[in-house]
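User: Can you write out an input/output pair for a complex, sequences first and structure second?

Assistant: Here is one pair. Inputs:
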Amino acid sequence: MSCCYSRNLRAYFLCLSVVLLVIFQATPAVSRIYIDINSPLQKKIPIAIPSFLNEGGDGANQSMGKNLAAILNDALSFSGLFQGLDPAVFLQDPEKMGVKKAEIKFSEWSFLGADLLVRGSYQIQGEQLGLVIRLFDVIQQKLLLKRTYTNDLSAARQTILTFADEMMLHLTGELGIFHTQIAFVGKATGKKEIYFADFDGSNIRQITRDHHINLSPAWSPDGKKISYVGYKRGNPDLYTMDLITKVVEPISMRPGLNIAPTYYPKGGKLAATLSFTGNPELYLLDARGEILKQLTISWSIDVSPSWSPDGQKLAYVSNRAGKPQIYVLDLSTERSTRLTFEGDYNTSPAWSPRGDRILYAGLHDGMFDIFMINPDGSELRQLTGGEGNNENPCWSPDGRLILFQSDRRGTLTLWVMQANGTDQRRLRLNLGGSQTEPDWSPRLTRATP
Amino acid sequence: MRKSRAWIFGAIMLAMLLALGVSCAKKQVTMETQEMAAEEGAAQQSAEDEAARREAEEARLQEQRAREARQRQEASSMSEAARRAAFEDEEIHFDFDKYVLTPQAMMILDDKAAYLREHSGVRVLVEGHCDERGSNEYNLALGDRRANSAKNYLVKSGVAASRITTISYGEEQPLCMQQNESCWSRNRRGNFGAR
């Protein structure tokens, strides 16, 4: 068993110590040192989360502590960075185990292979839930993080997810994705409507009820609005819904196409494809749909813009060379350069939140798959293959996960994978009909409808 | 002595070179003959092809004329409602990822243009559709171009642009759902609605 101790963990815990030292010295948060997403050899961090300890109060029940631990375990496992250990193998009875550092038997946890341990306790008073959660480094036998929360009992999941985000911030220098939503097009009613779900597919809500075709949902960067394409007035028009007031307003109802909305990363403006001239071209619109600028002028189709995170460039699809390919428009020089040269049919570019990668869907041996390329055209990599058609990729706001649609099980459903293409799994959406065109929200500070 | 040896050597070399040159030339002549023969054959082939093309074109025109005559005849006997239904029912089809009109689509559009010229009060909605392959957004754009290809053809055939509106449904309204070429080719279409 001693090999468990020595498998390269010393090295990255040495790194961890360095990072922690840096963080404790109150310098700006350092990311991607402890957890390097670009490392192809990145291993999941084994973490033990025993059932939370009941510290008295009203209405305590056996399942509460187990549920709280399971919510945290599921969320951390979803991130792809952690491997939650099976509670069945735990050596200690969580009910008899202390919560403070002095009470933790670190050797037993490291014997099980855990690198991290989360120990939580709870107390219920009326409708209030009190939580104290500690994160320990098992190998260094150190308390890394302690948080105390008092919140509505009904918001228990949100409170646990807040801890998960703080834990990610502590370990990686960046918040997690545990307060994000996924917008997508669902056909459960027989018509394509816009739906929302939590990051993990739970908490599904139908957003439009037009009984018409709705497509291409796009979050505003502040997470307060969603723009989409709707046919309810008999033409593909652009609409924006204010998620606080629920008011829907048409923003572009020009003749022809009003499609493919994408918000400028700093907000206020969006890029979209309009075809009122008779040809689909890219335009820059203000939030009310007024044209600020025409971005492409060609005889060909120009569609599906995706901004670089600095807002300086747009990746988009054009068939100006005969077949759809990905191009990059530099807004300062107003020049477009072709990005993709492999394959005859490449669409749906998605620029990564860090700016270093562009995803797209490409036709390859008769099937669509997700590819990743650097913005300078180097390092082309295929992320999916041999499993149905995989299209419409989008990034999680931390750039660690990729969400896409796949027909590998028949009906089109949403799937998630790590940014390096590993760990492909179906998003657990308890909803019938096809699911397509996902868009991942930014981190949200308040709950959306 | 040395000099004359050199001369002899030179002469031999020259003779060899000449011999080589002649044999090369000979080979060249044979090759040229072959090439000429091939070219002759090709020319003949292309003449035959051309004739076949002309024949096919002639056949197509004849078919079109026959069809137009038949339609005129049918039209005179058909009720107005039936003519309108025929106008709306006949779709045009497109090749994968293409919005150029096929010769067949043009023939169908000729009929529609004739109907519209005769019925100046009728307005038309042209719908552009695509098969399921490719992104929803790209297909919306492709459907838009398809509808506009049909519209532009009707305008060139003398129908006022103001009478024609277009809409793209991209891949959102397929006629059939199987994943094979015969189904996809049915879905890559232009539909026409009279109002």
